[in-house]
Specification:
The complex is a heterodimer of chains A (about 325) and B (about 270). Chain A is an all-alpha fold and about 325 residues long. Chain A contains 16 helices and no strands. The two termini of chain A are about 30 Å apart. Chain B is built from nine helices and eleven strands. The two termini of chain B are about 20 Å apart. The chains are: A mainly alpha (about 325), B alpha/beta (about 270). The interface between A and B is medium-sized, with 30 and 40 residues.
Chain lengths: ~325, ~270
């Protein structure tokens, strides 16, 4: 089957690109360390400055880039497949906005200054709260439309509360910190962040990855999928909680990073024959590659300025998405 | 052998009752036409039989109640009225989806699956455009692809919601012939339809629904009487006989008691 062969080639190329970009991410930074030195320092027993930089600064950053990119790509593909809507993206369920609100409250109240994990834990709390509100609104028999509308409402409310926190912030530094955090970044993250986010992401990935065949069946509509033995309630549960766990954790450690989850599935869909099940792994790898690239670019373009990752993905992503829409408008009609 | 047995089925959408005390049984070898005016409850009946609409009453599939959705999918294939295909997947991939309940994955269909997929595509005359994107097909072509998908599910019973709508006359006849053939192979088909001429000519049995109740159930000649067409559909029709079947041709809206135009076709063939 040439179709399957082509799919394998696409996956292999994406995987290879992700590996190369991951290694590249390890070797880019203000401390000019050679490629060989930096990689060997990772695996050596030495405790010199190079080893410290590699293990404490660059490794967590590269790992988070990989995992958050994969999360955004995978959840975007899963949500588009589940909702049968090419406009779905990871922030749709209100998880990103609520995680941001959690983080903002932590900064605003000073909770984030008490201990290093205060901010990501508060953000995770926000994500959990959002997903339970959305799921409770939709109920067991609720349809996808209820989920979308609840997500929109939760996002709007979380956005409003974030604005309120900014508005009332007594301290301009706190306001600035909130603004910067919300732009999304992987700078100065530690392995603690990795250990905090990884369990949630792994659980979320497992839930989303198990949806492949159900999403294929949903290509023909929910009634037809149900008649083919797809349990729609189970699919809803896995899609909502899988997205919440992985995207909630991603937002908690890196802030909101837009457009990756929306654009990556679009780019890859034609390459995998548009099959939702094949789009899942392809989009996860593609998301990882894109986010690693973006995180390398922010370090290369403006080394001294701390350009935020979320700003770059939005600046590049939005025009690119416009171009995609322009190119495919005939098919969209 | 009973493939589907429905007794005392009640369905309400919100506060509005859609089906009231519906009972019938479908056995192997039958091609049942489900007819009735718009809003009579045909689609709801098919969906309720599959457990897609909440209902009260007894539904036994192949003699068993309370099947899991997976087990049910092995016994009943369903062709929805909705013909939306969300993603530009290939025609062959859509047909191959029918094998999903049988446990083989979307991509690597085993030899047995391949054979059934090929046969389904051949039967619906879509093998020629197997590599085209299903979203770019015409309405009729898309309908045939989705019918082939349902055939590929290879279940003993097929429930089809207006399968013939959007098809040209030749493909309508191909479809009717295919359904009759499936029935003669020992399967059964229940298809809702509006074309009474097709229903009369090809179905072995008709169930006439009106306002959520079965008003007639039997052979086409017993169900399609001038009286019923007038009271249920509000139409006058020419009922005739051809060499190998019944002819029903709707003529005009029934006007009160004026039934002059139907006198000629008013021979009733009961049983």
């Amino acid at each position: 089957m040439t179709d399957t062969a082509r799919y394998r080639v696409v996956l292999a190329i994406l995987a290879a690109a992700t590996v190369v970009l991951f290694l590249l991410s390890l070797t880019v930074g203000p401390a000019a360390i050679g490629l060989g030195d930096s990689l060997s320092a990772l695996f050596s027993d030495k405790r010199d400055a190079i080893a410290l930089i590699m293990r404490e600064i660059r490794l967590p950053r590269a790992i988070l880039g990989l995992m958050i990119g994969a999360t955004l790509g995978l959840s975007g593909a899963a949500l588009q497949g589940w909702l049968r809507n090419p406009l779905a993206e990871p922030g749709l369920l209100g998880v990103s906005a609520s995680a941001s609100l959690g983080a903002v409250i932590a900064i605003y109240t000073g909770f984030s200054a008490l201990f290093p994990l205060g901010l990501p834990l508060a953000a995770l709390g926000g994500a959990v709260l959002a997903v339970f509100v959305v799921q409770a609104m939709a109920g067991l028999r609720g349809g996808t439309l209820t989920i979308i509308l609840s997500g929109v409402a939760v996002s709007a409310f979380a956005g409003a509360m974030t604005s309120l926190a900014l508005n009332l912030s007594p301290n301009p530094f706190a306001a600035l910190e909130i603004m910067f955090w919300m732009l999304g970044s992987l700078t100065d993250r530690s392995m603690t962040h990795v250990w905090l986010a990884a369990p949630f992401m792994l659980v979320g990935w497992a839930m989303l990855a198990s949806l492949g065949r159900a999403l294929d069946a949903l290509t023909l509509g929910s009634d037809t999928a149900a008649s083919m033995g797809v349990n729609l309630r189970r699919v809803q549960f896995l899609a909502v909680f899988g997205t919440a766990a992985s995207v909630g954790a991603a937002t908690a450690v890196a802030g909101a990073i837009g457009f990756v989850g929306l654009v990556v599935p679009h780019i890859l869909r034609p390459l995998v024959g548009a099959r939702p099940s094949r789009l899942l792994p392809a989009s996860a790898l593609g998301g990882a590659a894109v986010l690693l690239t973006a995180d390398i670019l922010v370090r290369v373009i403006a080394p001294g300025r701390d350009l935020k990752l979320g700003v770059l993905t939005a600046i590049v992503g939005a025009p690119f998405f416009l171009w995609l829409v322009y190119r495919t408008r005939r098919q969209l009609l | 052998m009973s493939l589907l047995s429905v007794s005392n089925l009640h369905v309400a959408l919100g506060a509005r009752p859609v089906l009231k005390d519906v009972s019938f049984e479908v056995t192997a070898g039958e091609f049942v036409g489900l007819i009735g005016p718009n809003g009579a409850g045909k689609s709801t009946l098919l969906r309720a039989a599959l457990g897609l609409a909440p209902s009260r009453g007894r539904i036994a599939i192949g003699g068993d109640e309370g099947l899991s959705s997976r087990q049910r999918a092995l016994r009943i294939a369903y062709l929805a009225q909705e013909r939306d295909i969300a993603w530009p997947v290939s025609v062959e991939a859509v047909v191959a989806l029918g094998r999903a309940p049988h446990g083989s994955a979307f991509s690597n269909a085993a030899a047995q699956d391949r054979r059934i997929i090929e046969q389904a595509m051949r039967r619906m005359e879509i093998a020629a455009f197997r590599d085209r994107q299903a979203t770019q097909l015409s309405g009729g072509e898309k309908a045939r692809v989705l019918i082939a998908r349902a055939l590929a599910q290879d279940a003993p019973l097929l429930l089809a919601d207006e399968p013939a709508s959007g098809l040209d006359p030749s493909h309508q006849i191909v479809l009717m012939r295919l359904f009759a053939e499936l029935a003669s192979e020992g399967r059964a088909v229940v298809a809702s339809m509006h074309d009474l001429g097709m229903a009369a000519r090809w179905c072995s049995r008709l169930i006439l629904l009106d306002h959520g109740m079965i008003v007639a159930d039997g052979a086409p000649r017993a169900v399609l009487t001038a009286e019923r067409l007038r009271s249920v559909y509000g139409i006058e029709a020419h009922l005739g006989e051809a060499a190998d079947g019944m002819i029903v041709q709707p003529l005009d809206i029934a006007a009160g008691v004026d039934a002059a135009t139907t006198q000629s076709g008013k021979e009733q063939h009961d049983g």
